[in-house]
Each structure stands twice: as C-alpha cells, then as structure tokens.
Specification:
Layout: E1 23-25, E2 30-31, H1 34-43, H2 54-58, H3 69-84, E3 88-97, E4 107-119, E5 126-136, E6 142-153
Antiparallel strand pairs: 1-4, 2-4, 3-6, 4-5, 5-6
C-alpha cells in the first residue's frame, strides 16, 4: 500500500498557470435537490416562499419552487474552486446575472474564462486574476453568470503543506 504524502496532493493552479482567453470547463456537475434548496434558504434566513412553498410557487409564472439564487452563486463558485481559486483569496463578485431560473432536480455545470491577469503591486508573491464563470443546466441553458476577481499565489509562494500530518501505515 502506498501512502499519499503532502507533496502528492493536488495543489491547484498558480498565477503562472492562467492566460487571458483561457476557457476551463469544470469537470463536476451537481444535481440540486429540494433538501439543498430548503436547507440553504432556511440557513440564510430567506423568507421568500418562492423557494420553499410548493403551493405558493405553483401560482407564479414559474409553476414550481425556484432554487435560491444565492445557493446558485455559491454552487457555481464551489464547482470552479479546484480549477480557479484553490490557491487564492476572493476579492469580489461583480456583474451577477441570472438569465434563467434553476429548479429542483436540475443539474448544474460550470465553466470559466480568464478575462484579466495582472501582477499585484502590493503583494509580489501573488497576482490578480479576473474571470467570468457561467453556470448552466443539463440542457445547456445558462442560469448564472458572474465576474469574479481573486488574489492568487505565484508558483513557489504557496502556503506550506508541511503542517498536514501523514497517515501512519498499519503494521
């Protein structure tokens, strides 16, 4: 049996791994459930019945509950982390647009396009990365778009993984 040492763990992309115009299709999709929607809506104190009252939602133009848009933003962000911001700190989200609703049972996928790269003037060990992420459903319909800016580490300046323990093998 081989043990996995910290240096073998996927470390994510660094500043130097991005280029303007690069498009990254994030590999994982996620089917959104009624439980996801209700828990997130209640956790955030959102009292809009459009997210958790089936009878109410049936009387709207949508005919059924909508997935909480803040959950959609969080999920698309999460789907992109391994590829875009594993080694970064968020600076902000801009231009958030929801062109089509997301519903319970839809599967959400994401892709990102690098818009801008620049060196950080105040932090030479990091750079600023701006990208546009899109979330789309199982039919390819875009349900969310946003621009996100992060401060990403340069290669050779990642925080150390030395503090991560190595699991001891059983005798």
């Amino acid at each position: 049996m081989t043990s996995t040492h910290p240096e073998q763990i996927y470390a994510g992309r660094c500043f130097e791994d991005f280029r303007v115009g690069q498009v990254i299709e994030h590999p994982l999709g996620r089917t959104v459930t009624q439980t996801d929607n209700i828990w997130f809506t209640l956790l955030t104190g959102n009292t809009n019945p459009l997210h958790f009252d089936v009878h109410y939602a049936a009387h709207t133009e949508f005919g059924r509950p909508l997935i909480n848009s803040a959950f959609t933003v969080a999920l698309v962000t999460g789907l992109s982390v391994a590829d875009m911001s594993q080694n970064a700190v968020n600076l902000g989200w801009d231009e958030v647009r929801l062109p089509h609703p997301l519903f319970e049972g839809d599967t959400l996928y994401a892709r990102s396009e690098v818009l801008e790269l620049r060196e950080s003037r105040s932090r030479p060990h990091q750079g600023v990365l701006s990208f546009r992420s899109s979330g789309y459903n199982q039919s390819g319909v875009v349900v969310l778009e946003f621009k996100r800016t992060v401060l990403v580490y340069r290669r050779g300046h990642l925080p150390s993984n030395q503090s991560r323990p190595v699991m001891q093998e059983r005798p």
